[in-house]
TrEMBL record:
Transglutaminase-like domain segment(s): 295-358
Listed Pfam families: Transglut_core
Organism of derivation: Cohnella cellulosilytica
Alphabetical UniProt keywords: Membrane, Transmembrane, Transmembrane helix
TM region(s), chain numbering: 12-29, 41-61, 103-121
Listed InterPro entries: Papain-like_cys_pep_sf (IPR038765), Transglutaminase-like (IPR002931)
Entry protein name: Transglutaminase domain-containing protein
Amino acid sequence: MKGWGTVVDANLVTWALLAIIALSLYQGVRRGASGSVKRLASFLGEAVLTVLAVALAAIAASELSPGLQTWLAERSLSRPSADSAALRQFFYTVVTGLRDLPLLRFAALFLIAYMLIRLAAGLAAKAILPGSPGTAASPSSSGGIVSRTTGGALGAALGTGRALLLTATLFAYCALFPLGPLTDYIQQSGLYREVAAQIIRPAAGIVLEERLPVFAKAMSGELDQLWQKRYDVIDAELPGDVVAAALSVTKEHEGDKAKARALYDWVGTRISYDDDKVRAYEELGEWREQNPEATFVTRKGVCIDYARLYAAMARAVGLDVRVVTGLGYDGRGGYGAHAWNEIYANEEQRWIPLDSTWAKTGNWFDSPGFADTHIRQGGVTG
């Protein structure tokens, strides 16, 4: 480590931290001892209240989450039609997201509980504590040099607390976004590095460096799932020709798995991969959105189009189906964005993975190596 004597540099983060301390020291001198004591006490009280509110909100969210999930699962919520009002579509997406995504449900309950706790604490403080003076002490009424010196010391302590709070925030940012646009610059600050190494990491390094990124990644995955749920709405209305085809394909098959396999064979052999659509996206940044009806009519599409058409046909014959997004093996040692399906086979009491996009290259219906070539990244809808 460089030590505290060599941490001052030209980095803006360093100067921001020093400016916070210097400004607080100056304000402390102006306020004097009594005013600075009140400010420091207010800052410490706010910090303690925040920690308690966070802890209580986390406990409340953990306790309430299972009950909310059960209550939402018992509600009869019908999928809105594709042409229904945007507010109704939004409501359906949010409610089903809260029902199906545990981290999203916890986060929503946590925020509500935290705000209620802070509101209750604020109302209680107003009811119990007398009103504080409207203005801080002026330099002339600060009580002289001793009071100002004491106030400056208290102001510096307050500034140090504020600087530590900013450092912790920056530390969390660097942990969440190790390749972020500002991460390298922040970590070049000598003062930041020293404070992070000596105080932040020993105090909360495990939470900020290890658990927070894991939680954030999991939460990001759930938000991806919530985004994918839009297909439940926009693909809810099943075109007549798609329904007729699905019924025709599965009419001689019994059981969920047999019907799912028949639909897999049909979609996998009837739809051709749209290389022009891929080139338009990769070279021109042009994404050509298409619904299952368009894929069915044109007989062309990319992986998400295969998956959406398969899901529509599966729903038409009463199958419980998912659209899954993630990464697919590209055959050259890497992975690329991909989409596929899962159907629930009641006779086997399990979800069966299938990839109709790859059907022409081999058997990708419940194949043994499916998980080795398909990496789920949170996107599930159905």
